[in-house]
């Protein structure tokens, strides 16, 4: 088997695996709790702390945290209700 064919097969497998992950509904709907996300425990979620939650991270500016440290518990709840459906 030549190298190009092997590379092509490998790329197809990666695409297939990616599609399987993207269509997994449980992964998309589960949003970690405030406590899980607040890694440094300062009571605010920074942009980097929500980086694993696209619905919050992508809308970080729209959720508009009042505090420079990030969004507080109430802003987190509103953000989840509004953007993580
Ligand atoms: Ca924090």
What's the story with the biggest beta sheet? none
Unreliable stretches: none
Q: How many strands?
A: 0
Question: Can you write the helix and strand succession as a string?
Answer: HHHHHH
- The residue-averaged pLDDT reads 82
| Number of discrete domains | 2
The CATH class of the largest domain, by name, is Mainly Alpha
Principal-axes geometry comes out as: elongated
Small molecules held by this entry: calcium ion
What fraction, in percent, of the residue positions are helical?
55-70%
Which architecture of the largest domain would the CATH scheme give at its second level?
Orthogonal Bundle
Number of helices: 6
Radius of gyration: 18 Å
Tell me what portion of residues adopts beta-strand conformation.
Answer: under 5%
Alpha-beta content class: mainly alpha
Distance from N terminus to C terminus (CA atoms, Å) equals 47 Å
CATH topology of the largest domain: Recoverin, domain 1
Give an overview of the whole structure.
The chain is mainly α and 85 residues long. It is built from six helices and no strands. The model has no long low-confidence stretch (mean pLDDT 82). It binds calcium ion. Residues 38, 40, 42, 44-46, 49, 70 line the site of calcium ion. Calcium ion binds next to loops. Keywords: Signal. It comes from Natronospira proteinivora. This is EF-hand domain-containing protein. InterPro entries: EF_Hand_1_Ca_BS.
């Amino acid at each position: 088997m030549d190298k190009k064919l092997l590379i092509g097969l490998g790329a197809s497998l990666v695409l297939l695996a990616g599609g399987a992950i993207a269509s997994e509904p449980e992964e998309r709907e589960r949003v970690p709790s405030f406590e899980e996300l607040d890694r440094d425990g300062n009571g605010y979620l920074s942009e980097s702390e929500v980086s694993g939650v696209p619905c919050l991270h992508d809308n970080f500016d729209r959720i508009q945290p009042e505090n420079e440290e990030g969004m507080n518990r109430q802003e987190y709840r509103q953000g989840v209700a509004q953007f993580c459906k």
